[in-house]
Design a protein that fits this description.
Radius of gyration: 15 Å
Number of helices: 4
Strand content: 35-45%
Order of helices and strands: EHHEEEHEHEE
Shape: globular
Oligomer: single chain
Largest sheet: 7 strands, mixed
Number of strands: 7
Distance between the termini: 25 Å
């Protein structure tokens, strides 16, 4: 697997990954009906670095972004979002992207990484982040409206770098 910076030509492959995740509405607090252009503008915005993970054949199977969590006095803490293609689930892609993002965040001088809104029912992600040393530092009761179980908690997770 190879992880590299995304280019504008990766937009269709990125959309093929993020579109279904956004539409499912189970893990991200994004408008399920946002357009492809809106979703790509969000994921590949100028305020963030966007990366893609490719398999051995060069197919994009995952993507993540890295950005400052806040401006001003909060700009030393990183924030990321990660998505993998459905076909790549369970192959270690998210783990590789998380490791890559932590290295990149350190290279950029970030002092910590914070995930602001981890949906509590996304147990695979929670377990993965915990395996990297992230701690749940906050719980937002009923903050996310999941399409199946309804209102579920969102977690704030943090790791010092």
């Amino acid at each position: 697997m190879n992880i590299r910076p995304a280019s504008p030509s990766d937009a269709p492959a990125i959309w093929s990954i993020i579109g279904p995740v956004i539409r499912a509405g189970e893990t991200y607090a994004l408008d399920r009906d946002m357009s492809e252009a809106e979703a790509l503008a969000y994921w590949m915005g100028e305020d963030r670095e966007t990366f893609v993970a490719e398999d051995e054949a060069g197919e994009v199977i995952g993507t993540y972004y890295l950005k400052p969590n806040h401006a001003g006095g909060g700009r030393h803490i990183a924030n990321c979002g990660y998505m993998t293609s459905a076909a790549a689930t369970g192959r270690g892609i998210a783990r590789a992207m998380c490791a890559h993002s932590l290295d990149r965040a350190r290279e950029r001088g970030f002092k910590g990484m914070q995930f602001n809104f981890v949906v509590s029912t996304n147990t695979r992600a929670v377990a993965l982040w915990e395996s990297f040393g992230f701690e749940t530092v906050g719980r937002l009761p009923g903050a996310f409206e999941h399409p199946s179980p309804g209102f579920v908690d969102a977690l704030v997770m943090f790791k010092a770098l």
